[in-house]
Amino acid sequence: MSARVLVSDDLSPEAVKVLEEAGLEVDVKVGLKPDALEAIIGGYDALAVRSATKVTAKLLERATRLKVIGRAGVGVDNVDLDAATRRGVVVMNTPGGSSVTVAELALAMILGLYRHVPAATASVKAGKWEKKKFQGHELSGKTLGVVGIGNIGSVLVDRAVAMKMRVIAYDPFISPEAAAKLGVTLVELDQLWAEADAISLHVPLTEQTRNLVNAGVLARMKRGALLVNCARGGIVDERALADALASGHLGGAALDVFEKEPPPPDHPLFAVESFVCTPHIGASTEEAQSAVAVAIAEQLAAYLQK
Ligand code: NAD
Fold this sequence. Notes:
By secondary structure, the chain is α/β, with parallel strands linked by helices. It contains twelve helices and twelve strands. The protein has helices at residues 13-21, 34-40, 57-62, 81-86, 99-114, 117-125, 151-162, 176-182, 189-195, 215-220, 238-246, 286-304, and strands at 4-7, 25-28, 46-49, 68-71, 90-92, 143-147, 166-170, 185-186, 198-201, 226-229, 252-255, 275-277. The chain has a seven-stranded parallel sheet with strand order 8-7-6-9-10-11-12, with helices on both faces.
């Protein structure tokens, strides 16, 4: 009997084809309520998800046949990893599949802030023509500080070097040789906060990185500096950031991710003109979504055919 795969979030038709061509029996059932998913999960060897399906301990209790869960994307926050491990279920993701896409959003945010694109758009649409107010800055020659130069951070470094920025980075797990190959100088965090004109965060949320950018750190940043977080909510203290922007100490900030998603409508950052944001769409391009769907299908097929 061929192995059965349940696809419970929207993958792409190409990804489903990869699974079928590997001889697997595939059911696509997107948007099931938890109860409905619990009722059928016992019939499957593999589960393919993006971020919408919540793979809870309760669901895993019913997954008596399940061998593997494939998450098309990077973060596995929607999978109870401890429960999966206890049941011997392998969890796979697709690190790297959306790195270019996320790095491009970070770059777009830096460029958008330096040239006031969102605020100037709102101003023109409101019938104003504020040329002086929206005088901006060039990227060229500025110092970019990248915190975390893994898959995404290293793509950003590459793009920033091409844009003629000087790039410094902090990442305790990268060797100076590897950093030099990327064209980046490794520095300590204190130096990065103090020297960078723009700072972009690309670290996971861990005990070490929670609240990494707090009031004290924001105060150490250069006057007029930019801060971008396309990594995870909780790495930046959002209230302290709102204060640093409102006082004019920081020149601008952009968040793709928030402590609480979606953020409350009266969030203190929403009153600040030099703040821009997006609704956690860092990995959301057609190209990346298709790439990670095909990648997870290939990984699942390879695992089930072992
Ligand atoms: P990665 O694991 O390839 O890179 C993370 C890097 O951070 C590693 O090089 C690691 O050495 C470094 N690091 C770990 N702890 C650190 C610390 N305390 N200080 C400095 N560096 C530290 O991960 P990635 O694929 O580059 O992803 C980076 C982040 O982006 C993750 O948090 C991921 O969840 C997030 N992400 C967000 C989106 C989005 O939609 N906005 C999409 C994909 C990934």
